[in-house]
Amino acid sequence: MQLPETFDRSLALRQSAVYVVAFCAVFALVSYVAEGSIPLGVATGFVMAAVAIGYYAWNGELGVPPQEE
Predict the structure, then answer these.
(1) How far is CA 20 from CA 17, 48, 53, in A?
(2) How many alpha carbons fall within 13 Å on the CB side of residue 49?
(3) 29 touches 41 (CB < 8 A)
(4) What is the mean pLDDT of residues 5-29?
């Protein structure tokens, strides 16, 4: 896999961090509301964030700033 020409490593790290925090928070909240295990919700959110990050990295969209038209 080759990095796109406009790849920005700091943007990729920020995007990844936001995905991890957002997915973990949402899944923990849903787990809490459903009276489940909060750590399980956080772990599930982390796995889902890893899948989303992997998908965007594989397609070359992670760390690439929006294109101005």
Answers:
(1) 5, 8, 9
(2) 21
(3) yes
(4) 91
Please answer whether residues 44 and 29 qualify as being in contact, where contact means their C-beta atoms are separated by less than 8 angstroms. no
Enter the tokens of residue 49: 């964030």
- Give the number of other Cβ atoms within 10 Å of residue 63's Cβ: 20
Q: What does the pLDDT look like over 18-66, one tens digit per residue?
A: 999 999 999 999 999 999 899 999 999 999 999 999 999 888 888 888 7
Q: What contacts 3, CB < 8 A, 6 or more positions away?
A: 60, 63
Tokens of 69: 């038209």
Q: Distance (Å, rounded) from C-alpha 63 to C-alpha 6?
A: 8
In this prediction the pTM is 0.83
